[in-house]
Specification:
The complex is a heterotrimer.
Chain A lengths: L2 E4 L9 E7 L6 E2 L4 E6 L4 E5 L4 E6 L6 E3 L3 E6 L5 H8 L9 H10 L10 H5 L13 H9 L18 H13 L32 H16 L2 E9 L1 H11 L8 H15 L5 E3 L4 E3 L5 E3 L1 E3 L2 E3 L2 E2 L7 H17 L4 H4 L4 E5 L18 E15 L2 E15 L5 H16 L7
Parallel strand pairs in A: 12-16, 16-17
Antiparallel strand pairs in A: 1-8, 2-4, 2-7, 3-6, 4-5, 6-8, 9-18, 10-11, 12-15, 13-14, 17-18
Helix pairs in contact in A: 4-5, 8-9, 8-11
Chain B lengths: L1 E4 H15 L3 E5 L15 H5 L4 E3 L4 H13 L3 E5 L3 H4 L3 H8 L2 H4 L9 E5 L15 H5 L5 E3 L4 H13 L4 E5 L7 E4 L12 E4 L4 E5 L3 H14 L4 E5 L2 E3 L3 H11 L2 E4 L8 H12 L9 E3 L10 H7 L3 H11 L5
Parallel strand pairs in B: 2-3, 2-4, 4-5, 5-7, 6-7, 10-11, 10-13, 13-14
Antiparallel strand pairs in B: 1-8, 6-12, 9-11
Helix pairs in contact in B: 1-8, 3-5, 9-13
Chain C lengths: L5 H26 L14 H8 L8 E3 L5 H6 L4 H8 L33 H14 L6 E6 L6 H12 L4 E7 L2 E2 L2 E2 L19 E6 L3 H16 L4 E6 L17 H8 L3 H12 L4 H24 L22 H9 L3
Parallel strand pairs in C: 1-2, 2-3, 3-7, 6-7
Antiparallel strand pairs in C: 4-5
Helix pairs in contact in C: 1-2, 1-9, 1-10, 2-7, 4-10, 5-6
The chains are: A alpha+beta, B alpha/beta, C alpha/beta.
Chain lengths: ~425, ~325, ~350
């Protein structure tokens, strides 16, 4: 007996999923557990496995399409069975979020006065008008206050769309995951090595991926809530690069420059703890470890894996962890503990040749360091013009937490340490 | 630890307290020569004699009032009601006399008395003999009310009740009399006014008392299979109510199901639900769920009488609703 | 009866006069709104309380009554100042302003109330007698109730219990002939309440409740029986001059009827008896009257001068030991807001 394969909820908060791509074709026979397709959820890309053996009779939602949880995406059965009857049977079980906009439209055309006509439809509409705050549980409201979130922007999954605790928790998690901010990083193609045919502009309209919409919401909120300002420094990295050469001489793989920068940033944060603090509305919370995030670009957005407690780790340890995290980020296998709750973020666009740039803070941290490309420059040292390798860094700070002098002192210390890494030791 | 029935745990409490204090007497219908309608007083007549273990006529108002007067006179009576259904005849003596005399006398009188007997639904007994009347007593200031759900609590709470200088109503359960459980070998009093966490959990608090605590535990097991960690709070005392334990639990889990085998309106469960709604307002992720008996008198037919009462399934359904995991 | 010593006669007169004057003053204070709520006066019935309680051993015996309790309280030796203060609702009242007219108590005097539910005190008193027997105190308990209460199940259940357990209890029905506005004969199957005792194998006796000496005699006999484990029922046929309570317009009876009974006034009857016995002394009576007046005036002055109870006292006297209240402190703060 053929059966419809329906979109399943792959995370507690998932309402629908995008079919990233099919791994099977119609007519293909599959075994139980085979990955049929990749489903992009609000969290990650997940394989959809065949619940039992059979033949894919029909693919109902093609790659790139979106299916609500419970909606049929394919039909599995024995070769030759009639897939259409199965779909007809399963269609009533499809959830009906699609009709909500229609209800809203209807609401707007209803008579204003009850006496003039029926008002039942607007009263029974499931979603409240966008202007009014959504129903929410007291706990959800308390959590939203704690996370400094506007509950109006959060979709509820409780009874009648009530925003409940899990909605806030998952929203906050996603915020942490997708908030690292370099605007330029959203141009991914060169960095990820994929080619875009030159000279071909596009004229289509691409619906937002879940990740894209979360990044958009998060960065907007951060940029609106945290008063940003920027402090720049040009750093002479000759000694740092020499050190890196020295310690990795003869080894197969060099330690990444980012690992060195993170270790040195951690040392600077230890000396300027306010830069490692977060805004909590009625207090500033100092964070006990330097949990440093590094922005990593992906095709449809970026993630910010975190190396915990960098102040207590060697460059080699940091480098090893970073290597693993970046791989996971690119594979889409990061879990929340890998990317949430950084205390400080580093975004390095040096590989793009960008000289310097500014970044948007990745909450709940209060600062982000934008690192530019290293290039040779003419410098005057003790009256002589010399060629030195220089790197420009820009600190974005949340003025609610970090005043200008604090940011300046931190940057001065960081510059000195990057120029003379030995200072980390003393 | 000794394993004993709820009935024998009560018997042991009575026996020990009568041995400890000469002023403790037991009176009620069939408590002496018949050994108690439910055998709770088995052997006590032989041990303590007819002056201290007294068969009364079937006059609940009369012997309840007599107990109140005896307490005024310095005796510490334990009045057994064959069931709480019949205690309705004695309501005046409990509500207007026992509960009020200390207050009306400006603190000059003391009524150290225990009223006890089975409360709550039994089986195949129809409407007059199968009802949960906890709210009748719990409503009244001046009384204390306890509702043990297991032998150890039955033993420890009855002993505390007998030693208390206030009138204490003990709600036993006919359906629990035969239940066995561990009771400490040494003397172990359970304080009045202290709830017990009988199962730890993190996702939802199930709050109940008396016999439905067992349904709550059953529901918690079933929820566990669905990945839900349920905490079960056994109130034990309904008056005083241990709000600290209740609120700490719900404050932790953010969700509550209150279970009371009484009718829903003006019940103990409704009051607990109200208090949780107020005290835990900012911690609640869902409205407080309430599982009670249906708002009908008890039918005789067994399937119907079971349908009327709270059950593990009903508690699970309410818990899932509070967790937004409704199927 | 004729063997009574004059000092006992004078003592009985003194008690009755004190009650009469106290009740008249209470009625007056009620009219001035110093006393509120229900206020049931005892005028006319003084011989019953005084005759019975005067015959008791106040060191071991106990007294309980219904809501018409001022007379019994005074006869039992309660402080008149504290009684009046209680009627005024003051903190110095016998019940700290929580009981009022119907709920006077003083266990130190063996007086256990003062009960507002018709007949409810009867089983309670039977229990007090149980305690006396259980503890072998040698005491007996007298419980007073009206011609209305005797039809309550509580009376019949209690009388049966007293008999089967041989309790030292004396049940005294004060038949003042009006159960609120209902004449007793309209609602009673028998026209002699003492007959009801026979249903329970208890001795019943009817006595003239206007004759304090007759009441006293009957009470002595009854108490003797009771102490021997034989409870007794007394019916004291009496009459109340005032309405059921202060708010009773008394449309159910004529002025003439009340006036007819005033001719059998218990104080007047006793004085006539004393005169006949040659024990009367006009000036001694005048002194007693003046002392009673002084007592009443002092009681009013005391009650007037006494402070109101503080708001926090509403949370006192509810429980022995650590008090607790449903809803906790939030509710308490709300209740105390008025002060």
């Amino acid at each position: 007996m053929a059966e419809a394969l329906v979109m399943v909820a792959l995370s507690p908060t998932m309402r629908d999923g995008v079919i990233a791509g099919w791994n099977v074709q119609e007519g293909q026979s599959v075994r139980a557990g085979d990955s049929l397709c990749e489903v992009e959820t609000d969290k990650a890309s997940m394989p959809y496995e065949a619940p039992k053996a059979g033949t894919i009779l029909k693919i109902l939602v093609s790659a790139g399409g979106t299916a609500a949880v419970g909606q049929a995406i394919a039909v599995l059965g024995k070769s030759g069975e009639d897939w259409a009857a199965v779909v007809a049977d399963s269609s009533p079980s499809s959830p009906a979020p699609a009709i909500e906009p229609a209800e809203h439209e209807q609401t707007s055309t209803m008579p204003s006065f009850p006496a003039l006509g029926p008002v039942a439809a607007p009263l029974t509409a499931k979603s409240p008008p966008l202007s009014s705050p959504p129903r929410s549980s007291p706990l959800a409201r308390k959590l939203a206050r704690a996370h400094n979130l506007d509950i109006r922007g959060i979709r509820g999954t409780g009874t009648d769309g009530r925003v409940v605790a899990r909605d806030i928790e998952s929203y906050a998690e996603n915020q942490t995951q997708f908030s690292a901010a370099p605007v330029a990083a959203t141009m991914p193609s060169q960095h990820t090595g994929e080619s875009v045919a030159p000279g071909r502009l596009r004229s289509d309209r691409e619906p937002l991926s879940r990740m894209r919409s979360i990044i958009a919401e998060r960065l907007k909120a951060s940029y609106n809530d945290a008063p940003h300002y920027f402090v720049r420094s040009a750093v002479d990295v000759e000694r740092l690069l020499e050190l890196r050469e020295t310690v990795t001489a003869g080894q197969e793989k060099r330690l990444s420059l980012n690992a060195f920068i993170m270790r040195i940033v951690a040392a600077a944060l230890e000396r300027h703890p306010l830069v490692n603090a977060r805004w909590e509305g009625d207090a500033i919370r100092y964070m006990p470890n330097a949990d440093l995030a590094l922005a990593v670009a992906r095709e449809h957005g970026l993630v910010t894996p975190v190396v915990r407690a960098c102040e207590g780790k060697s460059v080699r340890q940091i480098d090893a962890e970073l290597g693993d995290l970046v791989k996971r980020a690119r594979d889409g296998t990061l879990s929340p503990e890998h990317y949430s709750n950084a205390t400080f973020t580093i975004s390095n666009l040096g590989s793009f040749g960008v000289e310097e740039f500014t970044a948007i803070i990745n909450p709940p941290a209060s600062a982000i360091l934008a690192v530019g490309a290293i290039g040779e420059e003419a410098r005057v040292i003790r009256g002589a013009i010399v060629v030195r390798r220089m790197m420009r860094i820009t600190l974005s700070s949340d003025h609610r937490v970090i005043d200008g002098a604090v940011a300046a002192a931190f940057m001065a210390e960081l510059k000195e340490m990057l120029e003379e890494p030995g200072r980390v030791l003393v | 630890m000794a394993v004993m029935t709820y009935r024998d745990a009560l018997n042991r409490a009575l026996r020990e307290e009568m041995a400890r204090d000469q002023m403790v007497v037991l009176m009620g219908e069939e408590v002496a020569e018949y050994d108690g309608a439910y055998k709770v007083s088995r052997g006590l007549l032989d041990e303590y004699g007819p002056e201290r273990v007294l068969d009364t006529p079937i006059t609940e108002l009369g012997f309840t009032g007599l107990g109140v007067g005896a307490a005024l006179g310095g005796v510490r009576p334990v009045v057994e009601w064959m069931t709480h259904n019949f205690a309705l005849l004695a309501l005046d003596q409990v509500v207007n006399e026992a509960a009020k005399l200390r207050h009306m006398s400006g603190g000059r009188l003391s009524v150290p008395i225990v009223f006890r007997g089975p409360n709550g639904p039994a089986e195949y007994l129809s409407s007059q003999h199968s009802q949960a009347l906890a709210s009748y007593w719990t409503h009244v200031p001046g009384l204390k009310v306890v509702s043990p759900s297991n032998p150890a609590d039955a033993y420890g709470l009855l002993k505390s009740a007998i030693r208390d200088d206030n009138p204490v109503v003990v709600l036993e359960s006919e359906m629990l009399y035969g239940d066995k459980g561990n009771v400490p070998d040494e003397e172990a009093l359970v304080p009045l006014g202290k709830a017990a966490i009988v199962r730890l959990g993190s996702d939802i608090s199930i709050i109940s008392f008396g016999r439905p605590v067992h349904y709550a535990l059953e529901a918690a097991l079933s929820l566990e299979k669905r990945g839900v960690s349920a905490e079960v709070v056994d109130l034990r005392s309904l008056r005083p109510l241990d709000e600290g334990t209740i609120m700490a639990s719900v404050g932790k889990t953010g969700r509550a199901v209150v279970v009371d085998e009484s009718w829903p309106a003006a019940s103990v469960g409704a009051w607990v639900a109200h208090r949780v709604s107020v005290e835990c307002f900012d911690s609640l992720d869902a409205p407080v769920e309430f599982v009670s008996s249906e708002d009908v008198p008890m039918p005789y037919n067994h399937a119907l009488e079971l349908a009327v009462q709270p059950s593990a399934d009903k508690i699970v359904a309410s818990a899932l609703r509070a967790l937004y995991l409704e199927e | 009866m004729n063997t009574l010593k004059p000092d006992i006669l004078w003592s009985l007169r003194r008690e009755m006069v004190r009650i009469r004057k106290f009740e008249e003053k209470a009625g007056q204070m009620y009219g001035l709104r110093k006393i509120g709520g229900f206020c049931h006066l005892y005028n006319g019935q003084e011989a019953v309380a005084v005759g019975c309680i005067g015959a008791m051993d106040r060191t071991i015996d106990k007294v309980l009554t219904g809501y018409r309790d001022h007379g019994h309280a005074l006869a039992a030796g309660l402080d008149p100042n504290s009684i009046m203060a209680e009627l005024f609702g003051k903190i110095t009242g016998v019940s700290r302003g929580k009981g009022g007219s119907m709920h006077l108590f003083d266990p130190a005097q063996g007086f256990l109330g003062g009960n507002g539910i018709v007949g409810a005190q009867i089983p309670v008193a039977t229990g007090v007698a149980f305690a006396q027997k259980y503890k072998k105190t040698g005491g007996a308990t007298a419980v007073f109730f009206g011609d209305g209460a005797i039809h309550q199940g509580a009376f019949h259940e209690a009388l049966n219990l007293a008999k089967i357990w041989s309790l030292p209890a004396v049940f005294i029905c004060e038949n003042n002939q009006w159960g609120m506005g209902t004449n007793w004969k309209r609602v009673s199957a028998v026209d002699d309440f003492s007959l009801m005792a026979s249903a329970y194998g208890v001795r019943g006796e009817r006595v003239d409740g206007m004759d304090v000496l007759a009441v006293r005699d009957a009470a002595i006999r009854a108490l003797t029986d009771a102490r021997a484990g034989n409870p007794v029922l007394l019916e004291a046929r009496t009459y109340r001059y005032k309405g059921h309570s202060m708010s009773d317009p008394q449309k159910y009876r004529t002025r003439d009827e009340v006036d007819e009974y005033r001719k059998q006034d218990p104080i007047y009857l006793l004085e006539q008896r004393m005169l006949a016995m040659g024990a009367w002394d006009e000036s001694k009576a005048a002194v007693q009257d003046a002392e009673a007046d002084e007592m009443v005036e002092a009681a009013v002055a005391f009650a007037e001068a006494s402070p109101e109870p503080a708001a926090h006292t509403i949370y006192e006297d509810v429980y022995a030991g650590e008090p607790f209240f449903a809803g906790g402190l939030a509710h308490r703060k709300g209740a105390l807001a008025w002060q």
